[in-house]
Amino acid sequence: MSLGTAAVRKSPLWTPAIMLGKYLAASCLGIFLGLVITFIEIEHGKGFTAIEAGPWTGWPRSEASEIDPYTRAILAYSGKISLSESEAMSFVAQGSSDGAAFDPDCDYTIKGEVPPARYWTLSLLSPAGALIGNMTDRRGFTSSEVLRASDGRFEITLSRHARPGNWLPLGSASKFILVLRLYDNELGATEGTLDAAHMPAIAKGRCR
Amino acid sequence: MNRIDHLLAALLWLAGILVVAGITHIAAIFALPKLAAKDVFARVSELAKPGQAPILPLALTGKSFISFPDPAMVQSICPFNLSEGGLRLHADVEPDRFLSLSFRTSAGDVFYSMSDLAAQQGRIDVVVLTPAQLEVVEADDDEDNPSQDLRLIAPEAKGFVIISALAAYQGERTAAEERVKSVACTVEQIAPE
Predict the structure, then answer these.
(1) Do A38 and B25 touch (CB under 8 A)?
(2) Which candidate from A119, A123, A128 shows the least CB-CB separation from B71?
(3) Global confidence as pTM
(4) From CA B116, how far away is CA B89, in angstroms rounded?
(5) 8-state DSSP, A66
(6) How many whole angstroms separate alpha carbon B21 and alpha carbon A69?
């Protein structure tokens, strides 16, 4: 037994084979680790170009060449690439202003300021970016059609059940996100100074 | 080998693993957008041929062509292949009706975008060209009667334009569809000298 091991150790052919095996194992481990880090980064990261304001995360309108590689990879992976690069500045909310994720069994109220833009639209989508079916044809509001109080303020209610005023039905959604788009906005110069006070707040209401 | 040698060897292996992990991570980050973009133009080609601009359906089920669509927007897609000629886009703009054009490479990256605010005398005229086609067009220019066209150089021969019109009210959807349909998207033959 001990003789056999000694023979293996001494054989000049075996030593490089073992080393090669070790190198291969280390490389595989490294590649695996690298892919895991990449996956975690693009699943949970937001990239360096993202702007956060309260519950909203936005990607400034920019051309592909100006986006950092991380943001680009994240946007390409999530399919949000069309959000970042169109004529609009887009903001995505995945939860209410208190930081809790959206629950379709709860009501939510959206009110407050919207940064100046020629038009804005607020739409309800699934987290993967698909439209959500509901009984009515309402999937969002535009700045033109939203009902406003005499001082110009508005309040939008998200609920599974019919609500008076600006009701955005949650329909059959099991999970949802909100997308706020500002068309022909004036954020270009001031995008660094955007804060939660100038974005609509999302308050959680009753749950059932 | 004593304990310190073992420790050093282990550290060296660990460093090696981390270097490989780092290289893989960077390579994956750079490769991802290219991999994701690969089938974009193939999907565009299934929807339309150069010189056509069909309206994109707002798909409720399955994956629509544009992910994260804005339900208030009516959009059409007009592919181009500059090896067959330049692309001419003409739109008559109605005042205060949002209309936008976004010019994209075959991978879907925007290289130019404009809205109806950029219209001159209620018209938008854009020609998408290769650098060689631009030279031919410029050689034909009449100095006394300058062209009103906006000439865009495409970074690559293939790409597409997304035309969007906003239905500011739900009832305006048909009108927005008409606005999108009225944008003419044609292949323009450019004769070399």
Answers:
(1) yes
(2) A123
(3) 0.81
(4) 13
(5) G
(6) 17
Q: Which CATH architecture has domain B41-188?
A: Sandwich (2.60)
Across residues B49-54, what is the average pLDDT? 83
Q: Look at A31 and B20 and tell me if their CB atoms are within 8 Å.
A: yes
The three-state DSSP-derived secondary structure of chain B is CCHHHHHHHHHHHHHHHHHHHHHHHHHHHHHHHHHHHCCHHHHHHHHCCCCCCCECCCCCCCCCCCCCCCCCEEEEEEEEEHHHCEEEEEEECCCCCCEEEEEEECCCCEEEEEEHHHCECCEEEEEEECHHHHHHHHHCCCCCCCCCCEEEECCCCEEEEEEEEECCCHHHHHHHHHHHHCCEEEEECCCCC
pLDDT band at B153 (very low <50, low <70, confident <90, very high): very high
Element (H, E) at A207: strand A201-207
Q: How far apart are CA B55 and CA B87, in angstroms?
A: 18
Backbone angles phi, psi at A117, to 5 degrees: -160, 160
Min Cα–Cα distance to chain A from B22, Å: 6
What's the rounded Cα separation, in Å, for the pair A173 and A135? 12
| Nearest by Cα to A146 from A155, A138, A137 | A155
**Does residue A170 contact residue A124 with C-beta atoms inside 8 Å?**
yes
Residues of chain A with pLDDT under 50: 1-7, 189-190
Return left, alpha or beta for A65; rule: phi > 0 is left, psi -120 to 50 is alpha, else beta: alpha
What residue segments make up the domains of chain B, in order of their start? 3-37, 41-188
Residue labelled with tokens 């993967």: A128
Distance CA B72, CA B167 (A): 5
Q: What is the pLDDT of residue A192?
A: 54
